[in-house]
Design brief:
The chain is mainly alpha-helical. Helix content is 57%, strand content 0%.
């Protein structure tokens, strides 16, 4: 028996599952249903995935991206405690992110558009079911939300998924859920494009994905710049061209191709895109531009010539 007086053997409070962490891993037919639910999320979770300025850039977009990426990792590597698998505590973190995003979405900071609300709710329903795979009502709730988003084609896609998963299990082999997810990518992108166009038609501003900078930049560096440009456009309502010009001027003397440890990109990655956006736009320190900070008394830096 463990020695309660031994610091090594004694159970620590953080060893226990958190309030949002799954207690039970799915098995057999339950695992099929969890995989089908994850595939539903992959079909609709790309709504806010491109790093562009939008009313929901921030916690709402971050939660949706993390939910979809984690779903893809679970489909590819599995769900459990083995090497490369997505562990239960990671699912707990995603569920917490989604709970926080839903809370923010319901507040005054973000307009409540049905498509965004439905995708957020679907993501939460999927992870609620992954956390309690013995509750079929949770799967039914996720299906109902997915069908509100995708209509009749969604029902057909889910029936196909469940049939393939059941056939693989009956044959004693592992279903190729990664291939199933990849098959849905065109559907996912088409849905996201339709939804974004509908939001634009309602008057919501969506910027363009930053295509490049007039300074050398690696692929990872351009990804970071896209996130900062999107945060700047979303937070301060500026045009994409202005955000790109400010970025190019600010980082002109940085080596945005250096992906080494302690290099320029590593340093940039230590701050959130919204913090960089506020610091570059207003000339303030990072701690002064945290989310929720009152920036109304600060004028932007002059536009670079």
């Amino acid at each position: 028996m463990p020695d309660a007086g031994n610091d090594v053997d004694a159970a620590e409070p953080w060893d226990a599952p958190g309030p949002l962490e799954p207690r039970v891993l799915p098995e057999g037919a339950q695992n099929d249903l969890v995989a089908a639910a994850l595939l539903m999320l992959c079909r609709y979770g790309a709504l806010l995935e491109p790093p562009v300025a939008s009313p929901w850039y921030g916690s709402v977009r971050d939660a949706l991206c993390r939910a979809r990426q984690t779903a893809g990792a679970m489909l590819r590597f599995g769900y459990g405690e083995g090497e490369d698998q997505v562990e239960p505590y990671q699912v707990g973190f995603v569920r917490q992110d989604l709970a926080d995003a839903l809370g923010e979405f319901a507040g005054v900071a973000h307009p409540q558009e049905e498509s965004v609300a439905l995708v957020l709710s679907l993501a939460r329903a999927v992870y609620d079911f992954a956390a309690a795979p013995g509750e079929p009502a949770l799967f039914d709730a996720a299906c109902a939300l997915a069908e509100r988003l995708g209509g009749e084609p969604e029902g057909a896609a889910r029936s196909r998924d469940l049939a393939e998963l059941a056939a693989a299990r009956a044959a004693g082999r592992t279903a190729d859920t990664e291939a199933m997810r990849e098959r849905d990518e065109a559907y996912a992108r088409a849905f996201a494009d339709r939804a974004v166009n509908a939001l634009r038609a309602c008057g919501h501003r969506f910027g363009a994905v930053l295509a490049g900078l007039p300074v050398p930049v690696s692929g990872d560096g351009l990804g970071l710049m896209r996130e900062i440009a999107a945060a700047m456009g979303s937070r301060f309502g500026i045009a994409d061209e202005e955000a790109a010009a400010r970025l190019a001027h600010y980082f002109a003397d940085w080596d945005l191709t250096d992906e080494s440890e302690a290099g320029a990109l590593d340093y940039i990655g230590h701050q959130k895109p919204g913090e960089w956006a506020g610091s570059i736009y207003l000339g303030l320190d990072f701690h002064q531009v945290q989310p929720g900070a009152d920036l109304s008394g600060h004028a932007p830096r002059p536009l670079p010539e």
